Amino acid sequence: MSIKPLFTFSVHSLAYAIVVLLALIAGPVEAKYEELTGSYRVHDPVMARQGDTYYVFYTGRRIPILKSMDLHNWQSAGRALESIPEWVSTAVPAFTGSSVWAPDISYFDGRYHLYYSVSTFGRNVSAIGLATNTTLDPCDPAYKWIDSGEPVVTTTWSSRYNAIDPALFIDNQGETTRYWLTFGSFWSGIKLTEINPVTGHPLSDQPAIYSIASRITSSNAIEAPFVVFHNGYYYLFVSFDYCCWGVNSTYNVRFGRANCVTGPYIDQDGISMMKGGGTQLTWPDERWRGPGHNAVFLDNDGRFWLLHHAYDAQDNGRSYLRIHELFWTPDGWPSLTEPNCADVHRLGLGLTADWTQDCYVDFYDLAFLANSWLDNFGWKNIADLADQWLRCNDPQDPNCKNNL
Q1: Catalytic residue among 147, 194, 223, 241
Q2: Predicted model pTM
Q3: For domain 37-335, is the CATH number 2.115.10.20?
């Protein structure tokens, strides 16, 4: 909802302005997801881009893949694994099917690295695998996923954590680029370990394992970690509560941030994610239930995209891909609504160059901006401000166009 001229000198227009302002005060603009077409039934999605084509990898038989040229229309692009690797039967003896869980895709050292997990539902006898490829284009003669031939991380009945839901984070903020794999679920929560970029496996046979998020409730329902860096902070996204129950799923995405990749991650209320903290990002609605297991993708144009799945109440609770642009608030927190004006007076930002963009305002913000404009532009009263506002979308633009 863009801020438009609200002032005229009639009772009718004044009433209209008050109605519009009250609507703005009622709450932020509703989050709008991208309209998707084609084939996009997925679970646990993650996305990469090669050239002009986007690729989504997701949970399913031998890791199915979708592709799109525009983020809207999706079609099948085959499967990553030709067969289940032989090492799986040793690492996870109860694994008898072909459904591979929660893949993650990243590019470094001249290859795409596809991490994935094999497990059985509700058990922590699990393993994370790795396959690599020089291209994502299945029509390229060089296209071939090559498995590393052994598990990257394994857990057993006696483990206090679970080797599922891998996500690689490349940290290039220091003098040396470091590679971190985050993973985990339930039990003692989310873990992080450093990876050797040459092998794609941990640095040693007994690597340091960092705990970065955990629930303090009896359910311990936490999983699907994903780490990104933005504007001086490391952000950890996780999913709380339960997936996989169709319309009864209670999944939702949470987040916190830290000054160091190993934590501690703190949510917007100042609560550590090791103590059950996590600010909620996704919410169910009448149609889409259990919106969770997210990935964050930074596009070539600098825009961030949030991907996750949700269960469609209009289609018997089947799981579908959901894509939404991820924004950042003025004080640096992720948001599904566009940058807003709600705290402009508290943050002391004054006039902002993008004040006409979608935003959530209240009367305090309106008064602050009005006073600022009166002071900065030498207008004598609110009538001068209203007259200028009617004639110009942006009072800072010397080439204003007449809006009358």
Answers
A1: 223
A2: 0.79
A3: yes
